[in-house]
């Protein structure tokens, strides 16, 4: 199990980004974590699960849904949080 904190910058609010992240997380399987909008116009997410699924999710965020324009994705490693539940939109 690995965990990544992701901060996505660009045209990522008001374009269905969080819903698309949720859908993609569900497709990839047993991911835990969350996604939310920040007041600064960014989207923040935490992905926790099997390495392959987490890394695919992080890579997906670099493109995002077709309605978005991702400019940057900042990724940091975190210790897996055993208290994270099923993936949610905050």
N-to-C order of helices and strands: EHEEHEE
The helicity comes to 25-40%
CATH class value:
Alpha Beta
Termini separation comes to: 23 Å
Q: Which sequence of strands runs across the widest sheet?
A: 4-1-3-2-5
Task: Tell me the CATH architecture.
Answer: 2-Layer Sandwich
- Largest sheet properties: 5 strands, mixed
CATH topology: Alpha-Beta Plaits
Residue windows where pLDDT falls under 50 for at least 5 positions: none
Name the structural class: alpha+beta
General description of the model:
With 90 residues, this protein is an alpha+beta fold. It has a single domain, classed as Alpha-Beta Plaits. Helices cover 28% and strands 39% of the residues. The chain contains two helices and five strands; from the N terminus they run βαββαββ. A five-stranded mixed β-sheet has the order 4-1-3-2-5, with helices on one face. α1 (17-28) runs antiparallel to α2 (51-63). It is globular and about 30 Å long. The protein starts with a strand and ends with a strand. The mean pLDDT is 95.
Question: What's the short story on this structure?
Answer:
With 90 residues, the chain is of the alpha+beta class. It has helices spanning 17-28, 51-63; strands at residues 2-11, 32-37, 43-49, 69-78, 88-89. The chain has a single domain (2-82), classed as Alpha-Beta Plaits (2-Layer Sandwich).
Provide the fold topology.
Layout: E1 2-11, H1 17-28, E2 32-37, E3 43-49, H2 51-63, E4 69-78, E5 88-89
Parallel strand pairs: 2-5
Antiparallel strand pairs: 1-3, 1-4, 2-3
Helix pairs in contact: 1-2
